[in-house]
Amino acid sequence: MFIKRLRGSPVSLIVQLSCLVYSLVVLVPVLWSLISSFRSSLAFFTDPFGIPSPWKYQNFVYAWNQANVAIYFRNSVFVTTVSVTAIILLSAMASFALSRLRFRGRIAVLFLFISGLFVPAALLLLPLFLMLQDLHVLGSYIGLIPVYIAYSFPFTVFVLIPFFNAIPQDLEEAAFLDGASYYQVFWKVALPLAKPGLIVATIFNIFGIWNEFVLGYVLISKTSLKTLPLGLSDILMKQYYTADYGKVFAAIAIAMAPIIILYITFQRKIVGGSLTGAIKE
């Protein structure tokens, strides 16, 4: 009833106008970046906000082949796939245990996970650098991927716990009566029912790791191992001397494309999954 009364009120109009302004603030730079990826070097200085003429599709060919974007893209796919798979699997196990099992220290463990959300990445850079250097895995994926897993672990557990809490306990009790163990209940009952939460957590982690820069910049130095954010930084530094920004925006467009496609494809699942986890019957 409150929403119906609010729909035609001044407050509703202000909210809708604010959403419209925010959408324009977000979308206009993205659209300008995509259009700019087809501009020539001369067009950036003569007509930076006009329609490209001619459209330079060669910018994408150069970015993919000559600027090593193909290597950076492959590295990002590998790092993101391995990291997110491990994050979701481990976080689902931890979330199920914290949601269903009752053991001494459970609340302390839960607060320990929550406290991990408040640790900024910048605070961990020096300890991580020294630790990985002592372990002789600095500058490799063996050092980078576990860091990504550990850093995303608390957030993912925090997201998944409400989804496991929303699963009716009657289903688990019925499985136990049929002789199922906790492992079987987790894999065959809880995990399939928590699928909306797993999708939401997977998408958010893909966004985070695909775009992560700070940790990767400190822990990876080899060009052949750099991910897209690190590679784009190198490309931008090189273009300061050539001023060929069309190729830079082409590389940015390639980096943005998978995230935009993923969000457009799963936006309803993100919203629906979030609402599912927020409601417990």
Spans where pLDDT lies below 50 across 5 or more residues: 1-6
Distance between the termini: 22 Å
Q: Roughly what fraction of the amino acids lie in strands?
A: under 5%
At the fold tier of CATH, the topology name is MetI-like fold
Query: What is the domain tally?
Result: 1
Oligomer: single chain
Helix content: over 70%
Q: Identify the CATH architecture.
A: Orthogonal Bundle
SS field, number of helical segments: 14
Mean pLDDT: 85
Instruction: Please trace the helix and strand order, writing H or E for each element.
Output: HHHHHHHHHHHHHH
Instruction: Please summarize the sheet with the most strands.
Output: none
Number of strands: 0
Q: What is the CATH level 1 assignment? A: Mainly Alpha
Describe this protein with a few key phrases.
MetI-like fold, mainly alpha, disordered N terminus, single chain, 281 residues
Tell me about this structure.
The structure is a single chain. This protein is 78% helix and 0% strand. The protein is mainly alpha-helical and 281 residues long. The chain has 14 helices and no strands. It has one domain: MetI-like fold (Orthogonal Bundle).
Topology:
Blueprint: H1 2-6, H2 10-36, H3 41-46, H4 58-65, H5 69-100, H6 106-115, H7 121-134, H8 141-165, H9 169-177, H10 182-193, H11 195-210, H12 214-219, H13 228-242, H14 245-278
